[in-house]
Amino acid sequence: MAKLVSKAVAEFVGTALLVCVVVGSGIMGTNLTHDVGVALIINAFSTVFALALLILVLGPISGAHLNPVVSLVNLISRAQKPMESLVFVVAQIVGAITGAIAANVMFDLPVVQFSSHERVSAGMLLGEVIATAGLIAVIGILNRRELGPLIPVAVAAWIGSAYFFTSSTSFANPAVTIGRVFSDTLAGIAPTSVLPYVGAQFVGALIGLAVIKGVSRA
Which residues span the domain enclosing 137? Predict the structure, then answer.
């Protein structure tokens, strides 16, 4: 039980910090420039560096899932027990909301706010499918080839790239998606867009899992 608590704390803190970075750097970007492209670059670079560091630091404790679809894939692959997966997902979602609120407070914005940034379109949902499938495939293939130490850099590289080649800017994470509802800023997503995004992310996770299995037969 103590070990599970430690893992849950790691998932909570890691996801909270990740969302705090995503939202906070988005706010900072828009404060520094009116150029949306430059603001996105600030947001992306900050997220990439933080994500790599969080996985590197928390990986030995909980595996640094920081993402419900990663925990789901571990459950499907029988690498994680149902109770542990459930605890991880709850910790991730609560952490994500906490991180968004912390970013609001840091920048003197209302503590609780809801985004008005509608993001639903066929192209954006396809972007989320691709971003999430790629994320799961990168993690799974590296694990199966016993290249786990490369995961922090590889995951950060994939997400950083997907920030710019996907129309959705690569959320690829249901917990982060929910957390970003609480930020009416560059990084925010309207509540009505959450369910389609999360659905696309789960579809992407299953495709990523299929890719892992297909590549592993080679």
Answer: 2-216
Decide: pTM greater than 0.85.
Answer: yes
Question: How many independent structural domains does the chain possess?
Answer: 1
> Mapping DSSP to helix (H, G, I), strand (E, B) and coil, where does residue 79 land?
coil
Query: Rounded distance, CA 180 to CA 174, Å?
Result: 10
Q: Which of 187, 167, 30 is nearest to 96 (CA)?
A: 187
Quote the CA–CA distance of 63 and 185 in Å, as a whole number: 30
Gap between the Cα atoms of 84 and 88, Å rounded: 6
- Residue where the block lists tokens 């893992």: 7
Helix residue ranges per DSSP H, the chain:
2-32, 36-62, 68-76, 82-106, 122-144, 151-165, 174-179, 191-216
Note whether 169 and 188 are within 8 A (CB). Answer: no
Assign residue 31 the CATH number of its domain: 1.20.1080.10
Q: What is the pLDDT of residues 96-111, one digit of tens each?
A: 999 999 999 999 999 9
Cα-trace Rg, the chain? 16
